[in-house]
Amino acid sequence: MYMSAGGGISLPFTAIRAESFFPGTSSLRSAASPVQPPAATRSITQDSAKMADIDNKDQAEIDPADMEDVEEVEEEETGEDENSKARQLTVQMMQNPQILAALQERLDGLNGSTSGYMESLPKVVKRRVNALKNLQVKCAHIEAKFYEEVHELERKYAALYQPLFDKRSDIVKAAYEPTDEECEWKIDEEEELTDEMKEKAKLEEEKKDEEKEDPKGIPEFWLTVFKNVDLLSDMLQEHDEAILKHLQDIKVIFSAPGQPMSFTLEFLFEANDFFTNTVLTKTYKMRAEPDESDPFSFDGPEIMCCTGCTIEWTKGKNVTLKTIKKKQKHKGRGTVRTVTKTVPNDSFFNFFTPPEVPENAELDEDSEAVLAADFEIGHFIRERIVPRAVLYFTGEAIEDDDDDYDEEGEEADDEEGEEEADEENDPDYDPKKDAVPPAECKQQ
Question: Compositional bias of type Basic and acidic residues: which residue ranges (predicted)?
Answer without folding.
Answer: 50-60, 195-214
